[in-house]
Amino acid sequence: MLSLDINTVIIIAIALVVGGVLAFVGVLIQWSLRKARPPAKEPAPEMPAAAQPPEVRAEEKLYEEVPEAAPAAEIPPPIEAVAPPPAPPEPAPKPREAKPPVRIGVGLRKTRENFLGRIKAAITGSKKTDEIYEGLEEALIAADVGVDASMKIVEAVRAKLGSDSRPDVIRDALKAEIARILDAAYRAPADPGDSPLVVMMVGVNGVGKTTTVAKLAAKFKADLGSVIVAAADTFRAAAIEQLQVWCDRVGAEMIKQSQGSDPAAVAFDAVRAAVARKARAVLIDTAGRLQTKVNLMEELKKIARVVGRELPGAPHETWLVLDANTGQNALSQAKLFGDSVPLTGVVLAKLDSTAKGGVVIAIAERLKVPVRFVGLGEGLGDLREFDPREFVEALFEAGDGEKTSGSYAA
Ligand SMILES: Nc1nc2c(ncn2[C@@H]2O[C@H](COP(=O)(O)OP(=O)(O)OP(=O)(O)O)[C@@H](O)[C@H]2O)c(=O)[nH]1
Ligand SMILES: [Mg+2]
């Protein structure tokens, strides 16, 4: 039988009482804590959504919607489709180069005013034949036709007309003689066949070579197709960057190396690239140099030689760029450059800013090198192919204020 010691019974009884008291105290503490706590915002994980307070569900929704990709069907239609009708488009800014190329008349204005005024004064009024021809000679010299060429022209006119001193007749004979000289210097442009046309641009510092390369790149790109430009002025600081800006504007590819590298190597790379890519033309921009510096002239020869080795016949054209303001020094430049590299043409830049456009006639008479293009401003469109007849007409007629002469007229 179970027999418990009295002590044991007392201990068990105390333990039960203490346990009961402790349990009661625990319940009391829990109850008081729950009363003090604010209602929980976060639902218990297992709590069904429907049981959650409304603001908690909204928070959850927001959070989930952001990262979720919208289903394909809900992708909003393109903006154009849902956007309200667009406002009428603003007129596009006019590209700087989009001017119509009719400015040779403007370009020739200074020369014409100077020249025609003197011619008129020489041939009108009752003058002796000697005085008339003296006046003509002075007018030609003042327009920078040069002393030799001016004398020759006047002699030719006089020999033709004798003592006929009618102003119109003299004027027409003078025009015809100038046109004859310009025509005599004409040569057909080179035909490179299936190869790219390689044109090398040479000249003294600051005459307008790089600008002319850019203008020609734009023209050749429009007329022939793709053009490659060789940045062979590796001498002057920022020359490559200057050309790059132009090429970007034109949309022509430019071949370059670092400043100080061999310009012949750059030209070689450009020609090779043009052949490989079947480009239609290569334009080589060279550094400005004084015609009297022998070593720099040798450098030009080397460029021509290296290019010719890569593509026989190249450079097909070597054009001397002259600043129309230079006057008779242009003849010295043409002579010495021509001694180094055979010149096939002249580009007369800045004709717009001179009254001495008559140098065109001197170049043709003395050097028998054709003027290929004339520069009439700083924009890409400010380049005109030189047409002797048009030039003479503009020189004599546009100044009348009555007649115009084709696209040369202002
Ligand atoms: N008015 C006018 N300015 C021109 C014409 N062609 C070039 N210029 C200006 O002449 C300056 C010299 O032009 P560039 O093309 O840099 O001359 P460059 O021969 O390449 O000069 P270098 O490389 O330093 O020898 C620039 O300010 C051009 O804008 C033109 O036909 N008319
Ligand atoms: Mg340059």
Q: Could you give a quick summary of the protein structure above?
A:
By secondary structure, the protein is an alpha/beta fold.
Which hetero ligands occur in this complex?
A: guanosine-5'-triphosphate, magnesium ion
Give the CA-CA distance, first to last residue.
142 Å
Please summarize the sheet with the most strands: 8 strands, mixed
Q: Ranges with pLDDT <50 over ≥5 residues?
A: 35-102, 398-410
Task: Describe the protein in words.
The protein has 410 residues and is α/β, with parallel strands linked by helices. The protein is 49% helix and 10% strand. The chain has 15 helices and 8 strands. An 8-stranded mixed sheet has the order 3-2-4-1-5-6-7-8, sandwiched between helices. Helix 7 packs across helix 8. The longest helix has 31 residues. The C terminus is likely disordered. The structure holds guanosine-5'-triphosphate and magnesium ion. Guanosine-5'-triphosphate binds next to helix 9.
Topology:
Blueprint: H1 6-36, H2 54-65, H3 79-82, H4 104-107, H5 109-123, H6 129-142, H7 147-161, H8 167-184, E1 197-202, H9 209-223, E2 227-232, H10 239-250, E3 253-255, H11 263-276, E4 281-286, H12 294-310, E5 317-323, H13 329-340, E6 345-349, H14 359-367, E7 371-375, E8 383-385, H15 388-397
Parallel strand pairs: 1-4, 1-5, 2-3, 2-4, 5-6, 6-7
Antiparallel strand pairs: 7-8
Bound molecules: guanosine-5'-triphosphate (GTP) and magnesium ion (MG).
Q: Could you list some keywords that capture this structure?
A:
alpha/beta; elongated; binds magnesium ion; disordered C terminus; eight-stranded mixed β-sheet; binds guanosine-5'-triphosphate; 49% helix; 410 residues; single chain
